[in-house]
Amino acid sequence: MIDENNPQSSIFERTVRPQQTLNRTMHSQEPQQPQSYAPQQPMYQTQQRQAAGKACPYCGAINDPEAMFCAQCGQPISKATCPHCGAEIDPDADFCEVCHHYIKKDVCSYCGAHLEGSEAYCPECGSPRGGMVCPTCHTLNDFAFCKKCGTALTKEARQLVKQLQQNPDYQQLLQIVQDYSKLENALPYNSERDIVKEQQNAKLRERVLSLLQKDEGVEIPIIPKVESKRMTREELEEIKAVKMKMLSTILDKLAVPPTTSPVQARNFAMASKPVGVRLAWVCNFKHAMHSSPCGCAKPHLGGKWVILGKNSTDEIKDDK
Q: What's the pLDDT band for 202 if we cut at 50, 70, 90?
């Protein structure tokens, strides 16, 4: 406390106060380590984790360096190696598109059951681990359907086909394919001469049948008319185009949706493939065109059958 009647007190106060003010200023300017570094610590740790971690190419989330799948979106972020040829493959792929081998040792390629890795036959479906020969075309297969001719090779595969035969969309699909096959074998008119010749043949038929009935005592022969199913090439191509459009619509309805099991997706696609029309399998994995889903590494991502034209064989990915 300052004594106004004591001059030494005021001198002492004037001498000390500037120093105290300076000390307070310097004290306030000194960095407070706990308060200064504390907010920067999480940012530093985040930067370290980003530098050492693995960024997901799909969502950008940072994952552990050894992570195979993204913890945020579940997509694969690392590559695995094919045990047969050493090619890089996705960790959730069960088939190598480079050497065309099934690579999952702990999953049955025929039914999807879990395996210990040492069984010679699947304990669930009884299929051999070394492959199965198709009785129709003698092709060695790793899957429940023949990759070449589409024959169902296992009991479960045949049951799946029977189940699909009860599906109205599949029944309509088979009918359209049958109609289209008949159109493919139809003989169109190539010229006006073909039309005139067919009319002459129809008249000749009526005359012969009339003479035969008169010989049998029929006074007024009745000859049933047979309608010709022949048409011009333009009419035939127009009808075929309509059938193809209907077929594409049904195939879209029977498209394989994304699922968790590559084996089940592959089996469903093969069971729904109609016989009698040239088709290719377009997968959602790479949008590649395969001769069948048996050549796709990740059929569980979905896909569908598409109709092939006459000159589209070069678009098919070689997966034999």
A: confident
d(CA 22, CA 139): 94
Three-state secondary-structure class, residue 142: coil
The yes-or-no verdict on residue 128 having pLDDT over 80 is yes
DSSP string, 240-257: HHHHHHHHHHHHHHTPBP
pTM reported for the whole predicted model: 0.69
pLDDT at 117: 76
Distance CA 188, CA 282 (A): 33
Do 186 and 236 contact (CB within 8 A), yes or no?
Answer: yes
Alpha-helical runs (H) found in 30-87:
33-37, 40-52
CA distances in angstroms from 229 to 183, 189, 235, 250, listed in the order given? 10, 11, 11, 26
How many Å apart are CA 38 and CA 72, to the nearest integer?
A: 28
Structure token digits, residue 250: 């049904």
Model confidence at 59, in pLDDT bands (50, 70, 90)? confident
Handedness of CA 121, 123, 127, 130 (dihedral sign): negative
Region for residue 272 given its phi and psi (left: phi exceeds 0; alpha: psi -120 to 50; beta: otherwise): alpha
Q: What is the DSSP letter of 300?
A: G
> What is the distance of C-alpha 267 from the center of its chain?
12
